[in-house]
Amino acid sequence: MIRVNPKTFPFILLLVSAMYSCSVSRYIPADEVLFAGSEIKAVSEERIQDFKTLKQELDLTLKPVPNSKFLGMRPGLYFHYKAQKEHPGFINKWLNKKFGEEPVYFSDVDPARVEDLLINRLENRGFFYSQVSSHVDSTASFASIVYETKIPKPYVLENFQLDGDSLQIYRDIEAVLPETAISKGSRFDLEVIKFERVRIDRELKQIGYYNFNPDFLVFEADTNQYDNKRFDLFLRLKRGIPKKALLPYAIDSITVYPNYSIVSDSSDTEVFGYKDLTIVQEKEFFKPKRLEPYILFRKGQPYNAETSRLTSNRLSSIGSYKFVNIRFTEKDTLAGTGGSGSLDADIFLSPLTKRSIRTELQAVTKSNGFAGPGIGLTYNNRNFFHGGETLSLSGNFAYETQLTGGANKGLSSIAAGFKAELTIPRLVPFPTSLFNYSVPKTRIGAGVDFLNRVKLYTLNSFNASFGYIWNENRYVYHELNPISINFLDLSNTTEEFEMILDNNPFLKRSFEQQFIAGLTYTFTYNELGDETKGTPVFLSTSLDVAGNALRLLSGGKSEVFSLEYAQYVKADLDVRYYIKWGREQVFITRLYGGWGIPYGNSNTLPFVKQFFSGGPYSIRAFKIRSLGPGSFTSQQEGTTFFDQSGNLRLEANLEYRFPIWSFLKGAFFADAGNVWLTYNPEVPEGTSEQGLALNRQLQDNGRFGKEWTNQLGIGVGFGLRVDIQSFVIRFDLASPIQIPYFPEGERLRAPFIKGGENNLTFNFAIGYPF
Residue 301, exposed/middle/buried by CB under 10 A (0-12, 13-18, 19+)? Predict the structure, then answer.
């Protein structure tokens, strides 16, 4: 017997009423019944290899698709019917516009056509002489169809051969056949045959056959030689194809227009040769010796479609051109020896505007919780040295205040900076011919930054780098900086900040080593730009090694140029998995891990290299830097921003994103993570009793150990996002489930219910968290 709590009875009544109200039976016209869907019941003579894939293909023929259901109801159809009333009202109109569905009636179904399609799909997969029948299951309001298919034993390949003659193209086709996916014993499969035609055409176009087409290839199956469902497959050329399609072509000339414009005056151009190229340009817009390495094909070489595509990619990656157009023109197809043809290659390059200035009014939000207005100015000069180089000069000024952060709320700062960067579209000083997909770029940069934290300190910094960036393919990106220098000068410290340093030996030591020089490398695999992937993957990992070269330069000393330098190795890994479906619905899982190890000249990581947790881009149920390390929490007023960091960070996130209306999106999320220490912080001589106590607390509560799962900050929440053409303003409201700095046994709590004023955290940010 099922017992119902009297208190829950009203809710059950409400649910039943809602389900009844969404019933659509009373709206169906008298001469119609709703289509409830189709089903395939398959019976086969023997076990079918890869039956799941075959079943999915057969299911695609089941048209039309019935109206969607939710918990046995059809809300989309219900909203449609309600909107057809004489006075539907604004709400019914809006619900119909956003969620309504046109009714699908049984009269819209054509079972005979579906049966023909099923037989066609089965024959395409080698199941000839299949049988399909159908019957209808119906009620007063609904009708469905069951298609019964009898699948016989498939036809399998006995022999596959090229039926050719003495033409050169037959010998070239025969040379690429060993790579075929068609093999003895394989089932007849029309899709595999179509793929083979495309593959052979692609291979032929890489050895000169400019005018060839996949339709010129004919596959013929012969079943007359056998009586046990075997067949022979023959490949030949279609009869009557143009003679020029049978000829390989070679490049006869290459003409490049480096500053092409439809409206340009040809009287201002100069024509001159460089190696295999003929250059047509106004004066010297682009140096020929810099342009020539981007072009992979050469005069006299056979035409190659893949080489042409890669050349277009390389020229587009320079960064100076908005359009790249490679055009091949046939010359006399019977010219030359050996019955080959000739092609003239013309490369038209339309440049971007050489100089540009961009001014931005900014709403700055940073991962440390600071936000405020700012202004940025950027000047770009493309093709600066007439070799595709881009010079970029940028400056910024911002006023920031910390919107969240407990005792540090209201802390303000003034920030300003200037940066110069030169991007050279080649691998200095190495040859660019080492890469085909896109040519790496050399990037040289230097900048200065000024930061004044009111009531605390002034920080001046200088940074410089020399490195390379390149795309290995459409998904893989590399960034390598063999030289990365960062120098920070801490000055104008207030008594309040000096007291913070004196009472925190770990923090004081991390601020002492302000000279950082080393190597950084980042590897990124990103499928998010591929719209064809329903489950794209994002993976990024980076390595940061500092101090080794300086160690050698100084002969093992701890200082260079009277500056104490830092030594450490730091790495992180960020993995994300996206599941997309429906209309802009996405479910994301993310794992992040980072670990930094000081060694040699350093006992702690520099402050700017440490990890922290909490905030709008991390664990959103906790404020900026309010987590960790471990179960440690700062008990000193005003120091939370500084001492809650570590050298190990682990984090996991789940988020479901969905559309609400137009550019307004919604999300539900769950976050977990923290930072820890994997070493005991050094205690300098003369440390105060308060500092020693804080250091002991860090050692006891901040070390990573076997109880680390009990020290995770865990929270859940929901958010609203205004997404206008990838510019996102984000509002997230989160609440903790586990608070690691609470006493053991008291860390778990009900989100949004228990916890008082600390149980809700509001996050405002620009952009998605990941």
Answer: middle
Q: What is the pLDDT of residue 85?
A: 84
What's the mean pLDDT in 124-129? 92
CA distance 500 to 457: 12
State residue 17's pLDDT score.
38
Q: 667 has which bridge partners? A: 657, 719
User: 235 with 165: CB under 8 angstroms?
Assistant: no
Say how far apart CA 316 and CA 202 lie, in whole Å.
23
Percent of the chain residues past pLDDT 70, beyond the cut: 89
CA 498 to CA 501: how far, in whole Å?
5
- For residue 704, what are its two tokens? 């990573």
Residue 226 has pLDDT above 70, yes or no: yes
- 586 phi/psi in degrees, rounded to 5: -140, 135
Secondary structure (DSSP) of 410-479: T-EEEEEEEEEEEEESS-TTS-GGG-SSS--EEEEEEEEEEEEETTTEEEEEEEEEEEEEEESSSSEEEE
| Amino acid residing at 334 | L
Phi, psi of 191 (to 5 degrees): -65, -35
Tokens of 378: 């950027």
Is residue 595 within 8 Å of 581, Cβ to Cβ?
Answer: no
What amino acid is encoded at 365 in this protein?
T
- Tokens 């499969």 found at: 189
Phi and psi at 660, nearest 5°, equal: -110, -60
Furthest C-alpha separation in the chain: 98
pLDDT attached to residue 451: 86
In this structure, the number of other CB atoms found within 10 A of the CB of residue 51 comes to 12
pLDDT above 80 (res 391): yes
pTM to 2 decimals?
Answer: 0.77
Give the confidence band of 430 by pLDDT, cuts at 50, 70, 90.
Answer: confident
Phi/psi of residue 245, nearest 5 degrees: -75, -15
**Whether the Cβ atoms of residue 67 and residue 101 lie closer than 8 Å to each other:** yes
